[in-house]
Specification:
The chain has 83 residues and is an alpha+beta fold. The chain contains 2 helices and 4 strands.
């Protein structure tokens, strides 16, 4: 059994950056992402930044992206943002 870090919980809200290969419009952020999430087009990829969610919210967003045919390129946690 893997031991967990006591500072990390499933309900901890963190700030993430997701990079995907696919097309989305601004309505996706309004419908599926928390307020203040930003969409940045960078040539072929799309970056969702300032994505403040807990683990279940993150999984829901990733599932929604998958259902829209988007490919996850990168997922990172922006350090220093735990609440």
């Amino acid at each position: 059994m893997m031991q967990s870090n006591p500072d990390t919980t499933l309900s901890a809200i963190r700030t993430y950056t997701l990079i995907i290969d696919g097309e989305l419009d601004v309505d996706f952020a309004a419908a599926f992402c928390p307020p203040d999430t930003m969409l940045e087009h960078d040539g072929k990829t799309l970056r969702l930044t300032n994505l403040r969610v807990d683990q279940s919210g993150l999984l829901g967003i990733i599932r929604s992206l998958h259902n829209l045919g988007c490919v996850l390129v990168s997922l990172s946690i922006d350090t220093g943002e735990i609440s």
